Amino acid sequence: MAAAAAAADTSAEAAAIARRLASCNGSTRGRAVRYLLSTFLPASAPQLSASDLLKLWKGLFFCFWHSDKPLYQSSLATRLAAGVSSGPSPASAAAFFAAYLTTLRREWVHIDIHRLDKFYLLNRRFLHHAFLLLGANSFALDITSQVISILSEKVLLPEADNVAAGSPRGLGYHVAEVFLDELLPVLPVGLLFRFSKRFSDIGAKAETVQANRKVLFGLRDAFVKVEKGLELSGLEIAVPEFESTEVPGAENGMDLDDVKVEKKKKKAKKASLVESEKEGAKASKREKKVKKEKKEKKKKKKVEVDGGDVAEHSTDAPAEEDQQMGDGTDAITFDETLMSNLQKQFEKAAAEAGMVNGGSGSSASPVSGKAAKKRKRAKSADRLSVSDGDDGSSEG
What we know:
single chain; mainly alpha; 3 domains; 14 helices; 75% helix; elongated
C-alpha cells in the first residue's frame, strides 16, 4: 500500500511539473527544468512509469519549443541530454531516452521549418550523451543492446513499435545521418590507431624492463580483443589525417632551446624595427607641423601688412573725393602734407595760367582771397598807367 501511494504521489507530481514546463512564463519554465533535473529525477526516477515519463516529456517538448535565443537553446539541449548520461542508473537513463524518442517521433510532423534546426541540435545532443552512457559503462553488452534496441524500435525501424508505426521517417533519416558522427568521439582510441601493434613493438625491445614488458603485453592482448570485435562487426572507421609539423631549424641539428632563442631574437628585431619606423613617422609628422606653422605665420604677416596698406588707401580716397566735391563749408580735416601738396599744385597752376594769358586775364584758380585782391589791384594799376600814357601821347 505504501509503495502504491508513493507511486501515485510521484505520478501526480510529475503531472504538475509537466504543466509548469509547458507554461508561457519563461521564469516558471526555468524553475521547473532546474527542479526536474536536479531534484526530482535523481530521487524519483526508479518510481516513474513509462506514462509518467511521457507526461514529463510532453512538457519538456513544449519547454524547448518556447526557447528562442540560440545560446539558451544550446544550453537547454545540453542540460536535457545530460539526464541520459548522468542518470541515477543505466536502466532509468535508458527509459528517459526511450520516452524522449517516443515524444519526438510523435511530434515530428508538427515541427515547422523555423524550429527544425534547434530540434536537430537537440537530437544530436541526446545521441551523443547516449553514447557517453555506453562509454561510461565500458560498452557493456546488456546496456549497449538496450540502447541500440531503443534506437531501432523507436526511430530506425518504426514498424517494430505500434506507437511509431505509420509515422513519417524524417527523424529516422536524421538519426542515421548523424549516428557515426556522434559515435566516433566516444569509441576507444585504440580502434583508430592500432595500439596493439605499438604496444607489442615496445614490449619486444631489448631495453624494455621485464616488469614493463608484462604490462605492455597485457595491454596488447586487450586491444587485440577490441580490434577483433571491430573486425567482426563489419564497421569501417576512417582514420583521421594529421598534418606533419616540422620544427624550424631542426634539420640543421639545432635544439628546441636554440630555436626558441632565435625566435625571440627575431621578434625583438621586428619590435625594434617597428618602433624605429614609428619614431621616424612621428618625427616626419612633427617636421610637417612645424613647416605648416611657419607658412601660416608668414601668410598671417602678409595679410596684416596688405590689410594696413588697404586701410590707408581706403582712408585717403574718401578725403580726396571730399576735397574735390566739397565747397569748403564741410568740416573736413586734411593732413599737413596733403595741404602743402595742394598749395604747390594750385600755385603751379596759377603761374602757368598767368604766363599763357600774359597777365591780362583773371587767374583760373586763385590760391586765396587776399592773393586775388592783390592781383586785381595790380591789374587795375597797370590799366590806369596804360590809359595815362595814351592820353599824354594824344595831347602832345
